[in-house]
Structure to design on (239 residues):
């Protein structure tokens, strides 16, 4: 799915919201996320996940082409950590499709098993 | 920042009611979740991509007991920030330093510092 398709999906779900407005809102959502991260803020969307900005110290790097030593400046790098609900939803289907040993019969306890497995990882 | 803060920040900018803004914010995250759950990639230009990766089963160890276990195959989510977002996060923090590609995104101008890209 692309941002365009996301906007279309929003319009389909809420026909009461004018198209222009839906476009502006969806674009503003991501713009506001980017701005918050640029300010170094942490973003927490319950059920979805959180975005944080980590610092990377300056270091000496090598140009892989020439082998020459270059100095790499300190920088900030964005990270995303999926929330519990999203993690479980993403992992649900393959557990049933690709791990026949784990679920010999159709015992429907995806939530409980997912939680146990995660602790082991 | 939480969803409520996002709503506060965007409703005026988009000339929308708070109600519409709040509905759209909820929908955006719900729709993204649904697509990722279906194993689909979500590409948000200017922000980043969410990708679902399949992991094969592998051997691991319980660090507490030392017992060997099989970690089952699973699907995990990863987010890759776009270059635009990375630049925005570093903007102002760092002057352009020659040689490092990460610094080359001031105004989207393709600064060609690498002799190899002929």
């Amino acid at each position: 799915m692309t941002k365009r398709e996301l906007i279309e999906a929003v319009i389909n779900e809420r026909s009461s919201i004018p198209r222009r407005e839906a476009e502006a809102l969806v674009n503003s959502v991501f713009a506001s996320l980017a701005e918050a991260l640029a300010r170094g803020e942490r973003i927490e969307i319950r059920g979805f996940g959180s975005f944080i900005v980590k610092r990377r110290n300056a270091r000496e790097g090598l140009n892989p082409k020439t082998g020459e030593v270059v100095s790499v400046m300190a920088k900030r790098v964005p990270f995303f950590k999926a929330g519990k609900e999203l993690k479980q939803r993403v992992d649900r289907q393959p557990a049933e499709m690709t791990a026949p040993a784990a679920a010999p019969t159709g015992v429907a306890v995806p939530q409980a098993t997912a939680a146990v497995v995660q602790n082991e990882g | 920042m939480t969803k409520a803060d996002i709503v506060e920040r965007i409703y005026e900018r988009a000339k929308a009611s708070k109600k519409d803004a709040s509905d759209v914010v909820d929908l955006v995250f719900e729709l993204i979740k649904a697509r990722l759950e279906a194993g689909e990639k979500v590409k948000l230009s200017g922000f980043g991509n969410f990708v679902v990766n399949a992991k094969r089963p592998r051997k691991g160890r319980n660090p507490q007991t030392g017992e060997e276990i099989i970690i089952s195959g699973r699907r995990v989510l990863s987010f890759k920030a776009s270059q635009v977002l990375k630049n925005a996060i570093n903007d102002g923090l760092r002057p352009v330093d020659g040689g490092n590609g990460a610094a080359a995104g001031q105004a989207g101008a393709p600064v060609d510092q690498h002799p190899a890209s002929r």
Observations:
- The beta strands of chain A are 43-45, 49-56, 59-62, 69-72, 75-82.
